[in-house]
Amino acid sequence: IARVYAAGEQDGLHYIAFEFVEGENLRQRMYSQGGKITPKDAISYLLQVAAGLAHAASRGVVHRDVKPSNII
Q1: Helices (H) and strands (E) in the chain, counts
Q2: pLDDT averaged over the chain?
Q3: Between the chain's N and C termini, which has fewer beta carbons within 10 Å?
């Protein structure tokens, strides 16, 4: 989970500023493997993402844009 430093609105635009996380996102990884991942890898990623989302939810945070390009 990336650390959020600030969130707000300015001039009618909403923003979230969070830490930069180095690495390849899941979309890039899937693309580099021809659009496929193994079932074993899929389960591993799913368990990690679920744990992260559960952690965030336990603190009142709801991620509304879960997609491969947002998973690092």
Answers
A1: 2, 2
A2: 94
A3: C
Q: Which active-site residues does the annotation give?
A: 65
Name every residue whose Cβ is closer than 8 Å to that of residue 59 and which is 6 or more positions away in sequence: none
Instruction: Map residue 58 onto helix, strand or coil.
Output: coil
Nearest to 65 by CA among 31, 18, 29, 33: 18
Beta bridge partners of 66: none
Contact assessment for residue 69 and residue 25, using Cβ atoms and an 8 Å cutoff: yes
What are the two backbone dihedrals, phi and then psi, of residue 10, each rounded to the nearest 5 degrees? -145, 130
Q: Residue 1: is its pLDDT beyond 90?
A: no
